[in-house]
Design the sequence.
């Protein structure tokens, strides 16, 4: 018996009870649709996270000052000012796995232009900072080494700052006051978007490092820096570079024996690992939801197939009398079950994709519907049909033709 | 004339719990190709039990059954299904057509399980429907046909695979006298074309269409007249 004919017979049987077939499929439809939609939203989320991580720059190591104990009071991590511009220079010259290092200082305060004012983050840095962070200039020019060396009072605006102070006007060449000190705007940075922590990276104003050290932050020594941002030569050298920085700074800061370091390093692969872990947990959860809904749907299929076998006992008897073998009957009912679940799977995929699209439209959240997730869903729905269709089909195939023919 | 069917000392014992009932108590007869046999007998005498064995739907408890020279007792279920498909055609009292399926597809059914391609199936099915006088009703569903027409569809289905024997258990049991006469003359015509027919009936005038009458009583044959 050819397969096409089997499919035709199965389709006719499903069409005979349209409403029942549809209701039976509903479990599978809902299961598959929710899996597809959640996978789409989930992969959209991990895409956003990876974009945000990439926005920091690649192969990045952060060196932040450690906690310090002053008068019995421990400040949090980053509270101490233990890192200096000399540390930056040393890292650049003595760590072979490091490509670039930049010191930054960070403050916050009011920026005023005309009658507009805006509270924002003020960062001091040099040209290396923008190179490491792969952050280009949208308009005007960037901060140069001369700006840094001469502690010139110029500044670069993040897009958010530019929008809030200047609206659509061109800020370049204008004077803004940062903490009451006048600075000339030399340029505007490209838009960077959100950081993995959810802060707006464009809500920042940059000034040359030394300008910031002299004018904007209060510190014991003018060559103190807040945090270092270091770029390793390659991804493979990330851990090596981190080790080199640690041992160099330990040596420079005379950290020996049991003494707690006054700095700490963090590399991006750690952040990535955390993100990966949470996306793994997410897919585990999805898997659980999927399997529960598919099992419930599958039991529904099995139930209806058992009813169908009983209802069609006479038909089975006729087919057997006319020459159908056990396997023909088995295959016929299996085909029916698999068609039911695959059809449900297809409808579920369509609904799930539609739902994901609606979600992405409403939340302005990207959704990715991968070919992989669609094919997995499709194969799974077929497998549910095979698994839950087998018992009813075997029951049909095991009928005795005489009893089946006599069945009322 | 060659022997299509040869039964030797066929017994069939039904076991229900600890009770045993012998429905056939050693039945022997043979049927030659081209014969038209009517099987008669009171209700419960074992006619249907014997037909089920002839139709390879049931196996005898003991005894030998040769169909077209093949020993049916030695076959497995798949081989029996094959025999039913290729060598036998069934006509039932209750027609036993597939509902919601066009007449022509009902007729095609044995060919589906024989593995024929759709074009060949359709040709043969249409020819068989022509033979039983149902040309033009190919696409009617069983519910859109009269009882007599439904039985013709069933006969076409029994004919379509060129079987060695057509087995009919009370084929006119559900039909009125006019339709019965039509169906019986169709059987006569088919028999004259060389088809072997074995038919169970309660009615003498129906049995009269057949060239030979075998009578059952209590699981035994008590008469065999030509
Ligand atoms: N599966 C079965 N289990 C037990 N007993 C059975 C079974 N099938 C038939 N019998 C018994 O065998 C005997 C013969 O039954 P069968 O159906 O062959 O009668 P029949 O001659 O066809 O009768 P009718 O003319 O009413 O159709 C009956 O007494 C019946 O009760
Ligand atoms: Mg009977």
Sequence:
């Amino acid at each position: 018996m050819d397969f096409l004919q089997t499919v035709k017979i199965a389709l006719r049987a499903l069409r005979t009870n349209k409403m029942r077939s549809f209701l039976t499929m509903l479990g599978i439809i809902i299961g598959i649709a929710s899996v597809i939609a959640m996978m789409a939203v989930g992969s959209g989320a991990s895409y956003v996270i990876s974009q945000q991580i990439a926005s920091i720059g690649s192969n990045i190591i952060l060196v932040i000052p450690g906690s310090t104990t002053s008068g019995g009071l421990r400040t949090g991590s980053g509270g101490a000012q233990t890192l200096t511009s000399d540390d930056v220079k040393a890292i650049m010259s003595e760590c072979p796995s490091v490509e670039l290092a930049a010191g930054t200082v960070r403050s916050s305060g009011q920026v005023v232009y005309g009658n507009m004012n805006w509270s924002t983050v003020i960062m001091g840095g040099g040209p290396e900072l923008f190179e490491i962070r792969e952050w280009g200039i949208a308009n005007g020019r960037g901060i140069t080494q001369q700006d840094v060396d001469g502690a010139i009072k110029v500044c670069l605006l993040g897009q958010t700052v530019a929008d809030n102070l200047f609206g659509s006007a061109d800020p370049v060449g204008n004077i803004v006051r940062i903490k009451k000190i006048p600075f000339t705007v030399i340029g505007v940075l490209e838009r960077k978007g959100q950081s993995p922590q959810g802060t707006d990276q464009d809500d920042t104003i940059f000034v040359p490092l030394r300008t910031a050290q002299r004018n904007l932050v209060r510190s014991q020594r003018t060559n103190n820096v807040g945090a270092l941002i270091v770029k390793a030569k390659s991804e493979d050298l990330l851990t090596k570079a981190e080790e080199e920085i640690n041992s160099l700074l330990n040596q420079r800061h005379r950290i020996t024996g049991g003494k707690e370091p006054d700095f700490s390093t963090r590399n991006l692969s750690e952040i990535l690992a955390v993100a990966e872990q949470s996306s793994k947990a997410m897919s585990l959860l999805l898997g659980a939801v999927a399997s529960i809904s598919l099992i419930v749907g599958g039991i529904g299929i099995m139930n209806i197939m058992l009813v169908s076998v009983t209802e069609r006992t006479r038909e089975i008897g006729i087919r057997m009398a006319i020459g159908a073998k056990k396997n023909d009957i088995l295959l016929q009912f299996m085909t029916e079950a698999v068609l039911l679940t695959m059809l449900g799977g297809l409808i579920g995929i369509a609904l799930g994709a539609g739902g994901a699209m609606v979600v992405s439209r409403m939340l302005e959240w990207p959704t990715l519907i991968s070919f992989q997730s669609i094919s997995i869903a499709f194969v799974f729905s077929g497998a549910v049909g095979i698994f839950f269709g087998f018992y009813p089909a075997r029951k049909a195939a095991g009928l005795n033709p005489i009893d089946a023919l006599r069945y009322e | 004339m060659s022997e299509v069917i040869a039964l030797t000392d066929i017994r069939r014992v039904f076991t229900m719990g600890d009770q045993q009932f012998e429905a056939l108590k050693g039945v022997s007869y043979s049927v030659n190709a081209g014969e038209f046999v009517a099987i008669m007998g009171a209700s419960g005498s074992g006619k249907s039990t014997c037909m089920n064995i002839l139709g390879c739907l049931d196996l005898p408890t003991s005894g030998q059954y040769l169909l077209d020279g093949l020993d049916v007792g030695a076959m497995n279920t798949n081989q029996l299904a094959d025999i039913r498909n290729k060598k036998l055609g069934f006509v039932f009292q209750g027609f036993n057509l597939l509902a919601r399926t066009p007449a022509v597809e009902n007729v095609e059914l044995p060919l589906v399980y024989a593995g024929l391609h759709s074009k060949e199936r359709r040709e043969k099915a249409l020819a068989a429907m022509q033979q039983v006088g149902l040309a033009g009703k190919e696409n009617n569903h069983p519910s859109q046909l009269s009882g007599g027409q439904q039985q013709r569809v069933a006969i076409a289905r029994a004919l379509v695979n060129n079987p060695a024997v057509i087995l009919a258990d009370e084929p006119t049991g559900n039909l009125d006298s006019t339709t019965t006469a039509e169906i019986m003359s169709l059987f006569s015509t088919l028999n004259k074309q060389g088809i072997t027919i074995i038919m169970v009936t309660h009615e003498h005038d129906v049995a009269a269409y057949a060239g030979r009458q075998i009578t059952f009583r209590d699981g035994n044959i008590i008469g065999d007249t030509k």
Notes: Residues 3-52+274-406 of chain A form one domain.
